[in-house]
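I had to read the description of the data format several times before I understood it. In essence, backbone conformation is discretised, so a fold becomes a row of integers matching the chain in length. I therefore recommend that a typical entry be quoted early in the introduction. For illustration, here is how one protein appears when written out as sequence plus structure tokens.

***
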Amino acid sequence: MKKWNSYVDYVMEQAQKLLAIDSPSGYSREVTDYLLEELGRLGVTARRTVKGGVLADLGGRNKKDAILLEAHCDTLGAMVAQIKANGRLKLTNIGGMQAANGEAENVRIITKENGIYEGTCQLTDASVHVNGNYGKTERTWDTVEVVIDENVGSREETEQLGIMPGDYVCFDPRTRLTASGYIKSRFLDDKLSAAILLGYAKYRKEEKILTERRGYEHFTVYEEVGHGGSASVPDGVTEAWSVDMGCVGEGLQCTERQVSICAKDSGGPYNYDVVSGMIRTAKREGIDFAVDVYPHYGSDVEATLRAGYDIRHGLIGPGVYASHGYERSHRDGVKNTLRLIQAYLE
């Protein structure tokens, strides 16, 4: 267990670093630069795909029965839809970002040429002492706005900053690790599992593991908008997993300290043989796991199937509570996910 604790420490460290890099879907250059640099430092062969993701080759003997692990490094976010007459910004969401979860959050506005500005996502007319309907107002992208932390009071003054429609708006992740082993942050979906794949790559290199099946890792960049895993599957891959967040909530079995094995989500059932193999492996190795059906979920590997790839598919991940909001997981969930990947592939 001491060995695994050191790899979990590395995963938690890498998760913090990834979470600190803004990367809403479509704005991925900085986070993929970091992934390429870190994989290179580990001695793992990796390249950027044309689409913008990162594909890593972990090695292994049999290239004709290879396995692909997919985790996405893109996140939810927003984009400037309109500069309002008062100089504030109306937003359009990227992915499933909810206005109610973005309210009162600090943001960064990334312009095309004029650098980055700070601001806050607020309800329009956000003072309780002024707005008598504050508590009654539904939070939508029509009722919240970004107040820019610059001296602007008109559309023209905001435009003079170089801000325009189409600029990305990135929400502060507010990452925190607790002494009890929890990690709290926006965007654990899916930067925690991206860090797990880095941890598994580190384990393979340091322990000099050569598996029978060739192994690949794909860090995708458009998962939150539905087509992250739809390309860049290496020749010979017969099985692919999404390593994403495991759902925690009412009616489900998983906790933040377990690895979740998904049997079915809104896209349908996962491959029976793969799911059964995951369960057998977890039982054999004493890995703490839960099997669940996710009611509102879609994964990268389903996009891979829809793109026409002839593969078997599965979905696992550490339990994460409060998805698409301020999320929470635990290092035990990380360890159980890491161990399931290792035991299954070996």
